Structures are given as C-alpha cells and as structure tokens.
Amino acid sequence: MLPRDSSTLPQIARIAPVGPLVPVADPRQQAFQRAFAGQIGQSMQAEVLSRLPDGSFTVRVNDLAARMQLPAGAQPGSQVALTLVALNPRPTFQVGTQQAPPAFAEAGPPLAEGADPGSAPLALLQGKDAAALARSAALLAQTRTVARLGHGAAGDGNTSISKTGKLLGDVIAAAQRAEGGAASAAIGRTPLLPGAGADASQIAAALQDGMAKSGLFYESHVAEWAQGSRALAELAAEPQAQGRMPSPLDPATAQFINLQLSAHEQARVAWQGQLWPGQDLHWEIERDAPEGGNGRDGDDVAASWHSRLRLRFGQLGEVAAQVVLSGGQLHIRLDAASEEAGGRLQAGRARLEQALDAAGTPLTTLAIHAAPATHKAGEADKQADE
C-alpha cells in the first residue's frame, strides 16, 4: 500500500490579540467563549442593559451578560441585532443587519466590581476597515447550516430547516448542476512563477502564495486582519475581495463554496493551475489527525501531512510525487511514466537527500517507481487496436 504524501499546507497563523481584554487564563473569559462555541454565523438579539462610564455597554445576549462597544445612538432598553463572526481571541459580532457602513464589536464578560475599564479595552470596527469583515460575515451567513428540529402544533415531530439551511442546500445543488460537476480544486488563473529556472525557495514561496490566495482560507485571513496580524492589501488579492463571486447561487460561486465546506470537513485542499507558463500542476494537501485528536491546535504537531503533486517535464514526462510528513519523519515516493525517467530520478537521489539534510529535514525514506516497459507496450497495442 503506497504511503500518501504530504507537503506542508501554509498554516493559518494563530490569531494574536491586539490588546488585553482579560487575562487569557481568566476562567470567566474562557467560560464566555465556550458559551458561544459552535455559533459562528448565527444571528441573535441583544438587549442593551446599561451604559458604562467608559462608553461601553452591558448587554444581554444568548442569556449571558456581556460588555461591548456599540455604535453611536445605542440606548439602554433597546434591542440590537448581532451576528457572531469570530470567536477567538474574543467573540466578535456584526452589529445590525442593514447598517452602512457595517460595524463589528468585540465582546467580553462584564468587568468585576471596581475594575478599571481601561485594563480591558474593547474594539469597535467601523467604516472602511470593516469592509473585509463584512464580506466574511456575508459568506458565513450563506454557507452555515442551521437546522432546527422542532415540533408542530400537534406535536407531530416535523422537521424544519432555517432559511440559511435551505440556502446552503440550494448552493450545493447549484454546484452539482454546474457544468463539469462539483469542483475538486481551487483554480489558479495565472501562473505562480514568470518562468522556469527558479530555485527551490522561490518555488516553495510561490506554491504557498498560490494556495494562500486561492480564497479557500479567506474567512480565517479576515479574522487575522481584524486582529492586526494580516494586512488589508493581502486580502485584496483573494477572489472574494475582488468581486469574482457575485451570488452564492452562481454556478462558479456555488462550486467554490462547496469546495470550502469540503475542505473544512475533510481537512483536504487542492489547487490546480500552472506553476509557470506551460507547466501544469495539480497539488493536493491533506491532514490526518492523531488518534483520539481533532487535528487542531496542539494536535498539529502529531498530525500527519500528506501531499500529492503531478507535473509534466520535457525530458521526464509526467511525474507524480507523494510526500508524507509524520512525527518529524519525511517519506517521499516518486512515480515516473517510463523506466528511462525512473533512471534519471534515481541518478538524482543523492542530490535530493543532501538538499533535504541541508534544509534541516532529513529524508527518512525515498521510493522511486517507474512504469514497466511491458505496461507501456500493452497500452500502445491497445491504442493501435482501437
């Protein structure tokens, strides 16, 4: 059985807080975040309870008391529509449903009695800086399944699906009806490199850049931008920010949303395009969580990464590479289309091992396989018969 391969997926950086809300280890903050776990993209009503001396407000949301900044005009006793768009490092809500420009507010547990409000600042994002976060909120609203299991008036146990759930079903159906069926990879519209001849570090950087700007990770990148760890100009390079996804029911948009959902559920992403002009590339990355883990946070160290690449070279023909990185061990398998190409790869074996040693990632195993000549002859005879 062949080992699945894997190169490293450009890892989404953990979000670093802009300023302290309450200490990270504060059990009140942790309990507050847990209360909203699993509700990203959901809308809820908040009751404004009081205005605090520092200008922030105490509100009741999801049956919890919370402290947050609100846009001008908020008054105690009023109701505010909120949509949860981020959970870490602190819950962040889109305030209102029809605001222009949109506003986004961070929330935290109420301050302890006598505490200085300045020691736990909360941010209110408005205007131009909130535009990218608004795109993220819109996509979350379009793609999140919110199924409600309820009972009819007579207790008949009927099942109802929310509008968001129905929209998601329509999106998936539109993706399946699209020409060519469901998309299996993000499509690169332009070559990653201007031409052949780049060194390994340049190729690696181009691959990382191409996957990162594919749009598959747009919402995570928006969250990073909101915390100051990603520049707004970087978001502008992704499809969602360039207006290339006009409607969730547009076939191309539906295919892409379905691809994002699949990537999230299966921990697998794929990219297809040109590495440089004339050099086609199909690249897949998959992560296996360790036994008993979920493949998140600290589990990344123990997870196995599998990567598969297919390239076609002038002298080698098509070459498939499978890379597995597991527990600090690197395993590679190369499959060549001919015995001659396999021999050329074998000749470069020592150079590959030396290069990996120099890079600090010593090779654990390397297997090079070539299609047997008899197989090639059989294929040629078959084609001649046809």
Secondary-structure blueprint:
Layout: H1 27-35, E1 43-51, E2 57-61, E3 64-68, E4 79-86, E5 92-95, E6 103-108, E7 124-125, H2 131-143, E8 147-149, E9 159-161, H3 163-177, E10 186-187, H4 200-212, H5 218-226, H6 232-235, H7 251-266, E11 268-276, E12 279-288, E13 304-313, E14 317-326, E15 329-336, H8 339-347, H9 349-358, E16 363-370, H10 373-385
Helix pairs in contact: 2-5, 3-7
Top keywords for this entry?
386 residues; alpha+beta; Transcription Regulator spoIIAA; 3 domains; 6-stranded antiparallel β-barrel; 16 strands; disordered C terminus
Describe this structure in words.
The structure is a single chain. This protein has 386 residues and is α+β, with helices and mostly antiparallel strands. It folds into 3 domains: 27-122, no CATH class; 128-148 and 158-267, no CATH class; 289-386, Transcription Regulator spoIIAA, CATH 3.30.750. The protein contains 10 helices and 16 strands. The chain has helices at residues 27-35, 131-143, 163-177, 200-212, 218-226, 232-235, 251-266, 339-347, 349-358, 373-385, and strands at 43-51, 57-61, 64-68, 79-86, 92-95, 103-108, 124-125, 147-149, 159-161, 186-187, 268-276, 279-288, 304-313, 317-326, 329-336, 363-370. The strands form 3 sheets. A 7-stranded mixed sheet has the order 10-11-12-13-14-15-16. Strands 1-2-3-6-5-4 form a 6-stranded antiparallel barrel. A hairpin with a 5-residue loop joins strand 4 and strand 5. Helix 2 (131-143) packs antiparallel against helix 5 (218-226) and helix 3 (163-177) crosses helix 7. It starts with 26 loop residues before the first helix and ends with a helix.
